[in-house]
Amino acid sequence: MRAHVAEFARLGQAASDGATARERTAEPTHRMVEWLDRACAAATSHIVTRDYITAPANFDRAASRRMMADDILQGAGLASWQTPAIFARGDVFMLLGACSDILPEARLSALSSATMPSADVRTSRERQFYERKYREGVESINQFNFSATQCESRYRALNAKVPGAGRGRR
Question: pTM for the whole thing?
Fold first, then answer.
């Protein structure tokens, strides 16, 4: 087990000098998750542990690895579901949170609906991300002293940066 811990410690050093920061962060995480996946899969068939550790019916190892890696990488903005469009919408939701005391509730609701990518809101992780960004905006209301006109103007500017906004959203 110590050898594996030492290997994990070296994973961060293994990235090439030409790799981007994203690759240097994500690659060791994916390697660690793959190792954990193999170890857990082996435990389900090992003679000593198979009676205690079982895989659920219809278990998808690839989906499990992706979910685990995303949980680890999400804080750094490197999860598989975190796209430029999602980050851009997150900025819009932060602005809407900052403008929540300024804009009328009906207008705020209309802008939120126009910003949301779809009625079913794609994934729960994406929805949680937008809700968190909105709360961050609400918490920062005192930092910004926006007027309703400034909120509308900044909304249009930020929404224009969302890839595909108004053109069959992602």
Answer: 0.65
